[in-house]
Amino acid sequence: MKKFIITVLSIVMIAGCPKPPIKDIADAKAALESAKLAGAQTYAPKEYSSAEGYVQKAQVDSDNRQYDEARINALTGKKLADDAKQTALENKGKGSGTGEGTGPEQMNGTPGMSSIGVTETSIVGKGSLGEGVVIKQLKMIHFGFDDYSLSNEAQAALMDNAQWLKSNPAVKVQIEGHCDERGSEEYNLALGEKRAVSGRDYLIQLGLQADRMSVISYGKERPVNPGHDEKAWAENRRDEFVVITR
Amino acid sequence: MKKRNRVGSVLPAHCFAHWYRGSARLIVITAVLISLAAPLAAHAKMYIDINAPSIKRLPVAVTMPLAGPGSNLKDVTSLYNIINSALDASGYFAVINPSAFIEKNGGMLLGQFNLKDWTDIGAEGLLRMSYGVQGNIIIIKAYTYDVVQGKVLLSKQYSGSKPDVRYIANSIVNDVIYAFTGHSGLAGSKLAFVSKRTGTEEIDAMDLDGSNIVQLTYNKTINLTPVWSPDGTKLLFTSYMHRNPDLYMFNLQNGRITTIANKKGLNISPSFSPDGSEIAVSLSFKGSPEIYLMNLYGKILKQLTNTSGINVSPSFSPDGKKVTFVSNRAGGPQIYTMNTDGSDVQRITFKGSYNASCNWSPAGDRIVFSGLSEDGTFDIYTVAPDGSHLVRLTQNQGDNTSPKWSPDGYYIIFVSTRDGHQQLYVMNSNGSNQHRIISTDYDMSSPGWSNRINFKITVQ
Questions:
Q1: How many other C-beta atoms lie within 10 A of the C-beta of residue B7?
Q2: Chain A contact set for B370 (CB, 8 A)
Q3: What is the pTM of this model?
């Protein structure tokens, strides 16, 4: 029975201890993400990195239970992220980016990538859980609703991907299968895996070694387009090819 | 913590059963009927028919508990707030805002207060309470009145320790629901769900009224589909915490998370057998997502499906002899049943091109699922296990997905986008009385409803 001696969060909260500013931090992260989508890393890099610093600090403070500091930093981070987004949109409108050199490519650069044939300027994103990199040379492919067969367009893109992979034999990829938001979580996890497997099997048919590729499904959990219309759904039904960096 | 037993059980079982379930070792709340005229006469009149196609919320007023000796108002403020919130969350009552009250003062009993003070503000039901404190024990007397007829429906005294005031409140609410509907309420039962509150998908639990939110996972990746064990002490869920969709079990008594299955590929869509000893799950380590039976240590006991397509979402019949599941063997996803050895596969849905998320009712007579309707939205349907008597429960209300039965089978909890983004809703099993559980600015999805009431969750 002693096992049941308990820590009860709710009771602690009722007793008046300060709460972590979960919502403020989430809001700040969302603002940061929004700034990033607006191109702030390229068009307002100083403002963006300053905002990012505050948001990171807020998370660290919260993890260390310094909730008051965390809240202040989160609010500051959110404000700066909003400003960075605004500045980025204005600069983008004027066409006055601060140049390729300070763009997202360099900031996302991963050491050691050049040794496997991936140049830093080709990096356009990261894997869905932050691992690996997405590069320009490996094209996304798309699918129909509740479908994991490959369209002619998808097959053509896979041929291009196969060619690039053949000329860069040190590269290993993880194929991520994704779905649109419609339907059940479970069925979409399975559907996403079927999509990833379709992509992998076609690359094998095109002569690539199976052990250079792994598959993972993210179901409907990681859309590229957060919208709720046919355009967003079509973009989200996809395979992404993520270069594994370690 | 020493073992305690409930006391004072001299009354019919139904007076206690609905709030003692599963709670005896952790929380002790005693309740006795106060001897007054015909306390059980509530059955004589049905105030709210919970199975009516639509339910008009009954206007009720709840008075701030009157102070007795040794008491301090702050002891009951949270109790008062929880009672108001849980009565509202039940969907049966329109709780009148206290600022509308016109009563100046009054006692607890009929004749000691003016019924007209309540009928004048539109109340039909009234909950009056008084309280006293002895050391760490708080004692609440609660009287439920029909103020239109001037009748007492239920009078009961509750006691418990001060930190357990939430559970006293839930017990009172369940009794008030019983007094007006003849059916025990489920206030204080737990929901587990996927929450985007922190920005990533974590698993949270909360009380049925949306209060008392506890975060269970903290891995900042993707956590999905929490499923309660039949005894309510464990949750199965899928998590990407190790960068693959693997199956884990969360022990709510000690806060520990253990790995159940981390095979290559999918380890998803778990379901407990009715006796809690086995798990049905979808695994793709052989290539395609197939349904397997495993024990609680992750050992595979049997492969139940063997197609090259998709097989997910197993859910046991209450007698443990059958499993309903989703398969795309006929093209798109449809609902099937089979024996728990994989034999006698029967397709039970034929209408629509996409039917998924099946869940077998506790009574065994219905299966609930979410299907793509002709108008292009997802709706909740129920069907008999032989595929007959299909009933549509939602219509023109956004997308409606992830339905699960309440432990007593009277309600269905589900996810709907009718108010703009994914939120949790509950309705009666016939589709009536649909209402949102809690309004949040973040997405909530994949709910599961525990059959345990009034218990505490331990988080490590």
A1: 10
A2: 183-184
A3: 0.76
